[in-house]
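Minutes, structural biology subgroup

Action item carried over from last meeting: produce the structure token record for Alkylglycerol monooxygenase (Chiloscyllium punctatum). EB confirmed the sequence was re-checked against the source entry. Recorded below for completeness.
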Amino acid sequence: MVLHLQSNLTLSQGARLMFYALTPSETTFKEVEEVQDYVQQATPYFVGLMIIELVVTWFHKGKTVFRINDALTSISAGILSRLPELLGRGIELTGYIYIWKNFRLFELPWDSAWTWWLAFLGVDFAYYWLHRMSHEVNMLWAAHQVHHSSEDYNLSTALRQSVLQKYFSWIFNLPMALFIPPSVFAVHLQFNLLYQFWIHTEIIGNLGPLELILNTPSHHRVHHGRNHYCIDKNYAGTLIIWDRIFGTFAPENEKVIFGLTHPINAFEPLWVQCHHLLYIWKTFWGTPGISNKMSVLFKGPGWQPGKPRLGCLEDIPIISGNEMPHNPQIPVWLQLYAVLHFIFILGVYLHIFANKSVLSEFTILLGIGYVILTLSSVGLMMENRSGVAIIEIIRCCLFLFLELGSMTGPLKLVTEVGFSLSLAFWGLQSIMKI
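Output recorded by EB:
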């Protein structure tokens, strides 16, 4: 498999990209088509920073900060969230461009540093309200809860993104489309997301005066906590000033316990994405009265009849500080098998993204389906669930039959032998259980 992950960034620019430290002169474009795919180009920097975090925590604490099951689930969510982009321009840009072309009131100069900085503030302000509403409106929380479902807090957690959130997040950015060119908006939409990667870590403590202005790891740890003092706090993207202005700020004090207030105890990525939608469906039909049914959808996820809009803090389980994350024990060989096949499917995913302009729509759809099947199977392995053998037999047969990955030479031979051995192994497993 040949990867063509093109990058127009220097090493210095790539490093600064992760901290919103590129200048207007480096990231100003006239047409939206000229804007680079910064998120895709950031992939090696994601990996590099995670390796640094791994090494630092190992030497500092003598243990790894990553659990294989949780980290694979987070990275799977990140992959799933980007797959729709293989089929065309994202809805966030499509909706923005439509408003810009048909309803803009005036046009700020695309090559002005003032426009760049105004877009920086506008995107961050819009993100604050998108993020806040994603916690305060149950239907929006159904998407955003994916990001909070990890009981760990490390850089892999930043990749745990929702497939569905982008289908409503674009609405919050539309006011900017009345005057800010799409090319400028497209840059900051990516930068705002990339900045939030490095703040998902426990290895960085208090950053002094920067804590007053910027969203930092300390502030964002609070946001991911299920302690009572952490609930519905620190919604910032890049600037913490919005939380300070609108009364949603809380500093970090006692030890933060991460995850959902009611953990889902699952690693299968499709269930992680969709479980809250099923909960809403059941609650909606089980709640009497039209008004109450609408409240189930549009009030907070903790709302119940007779309760405040966002629910009661007293209904949230009290944190003892001794909570242990969900961590099913599975054989080492199965963990190794899952990791190897996960690395392979990550390569397939990168290959499809790098070559999407020359691949047919059918090939892309086929690749998307196979990626989803693999990620789901790996998640079920991490849960030590029955039925994995059948899924793996199907998955290995599909790979060998369809020859996914466009490989040649020794790599093709090694991969085919690997998948053939995997197929034989799971076939024997199925026979032995009959």
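Discussion: The two ends are 37 Å apart (CA to CA).
Next step: EB to file the record with the rest of the batch.
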